[in-house]
Amino acid sequence: MQNATILGGVGGLSLTPDEAAFFRKADPWGFILFGRNVDSPDQLRRLTAQLREAVGRDCVITIDQEGGRVQRMRAPHWTDWPAPLDQARAGPQAMWLYYHLIGQELRAVGIDSNCAPTLDVAQDGTHPFLRNRCLGTDPDRVAELGRAAADGLLAAGVLPVVKHMPGHGRAQVDSHHGLPVVDATEAELDAVDFAPFRALNDLPMGMTAHIRFPALDDGPATASRRMIGLIRDRIGFDGLLMTDDITMNALSGTQAERAAASIAAGCDLVLHCNGTIDQMAPVVEAAGPMTRDAMRRADAALTRRQTPAQADIAALTDQWRVLSA
Q: Which pTM does this prediction carry?
């Protein structure tokens, strides 16, 4: 049975023999790529093929290609996109085109998932690391634009991963460096932060937030059974749920302990983005094989992965530029 991990431990532009052997044995559900893995279209096509060959199946390969500061594939080979918050002003049709064109660029090099859209609702105090990655300050508008973004990706054959559940927008600390604590009341969270995720709870994949909500639980959402239960029950999300990167400093304990705690809390997959084979091995062991429910959700997600229809990229790009002007 496939392991409950998505691994990003590819050190360079191609797999080394040791990496290929490790991935063959570990059998992660999927992979995530970063800037260190990106050079040219031909190189990326070779790398994605190597990853799938290593595990012997057409596994999901994802990336962070939000636009703005967070995009791993850049000019001159790919488009340098504006930040999502800037793009949001152009409306839903422009947002659909924006993410559809991103999806076309991803699918052309063998990447079939994108860790986007960000459904966090921006606030006055939202940390700068996140703010312009959001789609707005109104939850209904965020939901509308998030739906357009997700539909654009799906139409390009790319599975969206909505993030960061159940909501990162109020955080004033960068969770890469520390654990944010959000002191909003349960009613405030339900009315604003949870709302876009509830509106898009039918989407195939989601990512947790490393945030503590004292009104609801003492632990970070990623490792909290109560918070994962809230995502499942109150938000109504029954898609495949992965953690945010467990190598981030918001979480405590060893990386293996973080992985085990996340799976015990109810996450389906552990996302491990940075590390060597020696660092990944204990995480793979701690995550263990995917549960029956996780496999059910994974299979459901894969049914949403479609072969995109032929598209006139130049015409779509012109249309996007007119709408975004």
A: 0.96
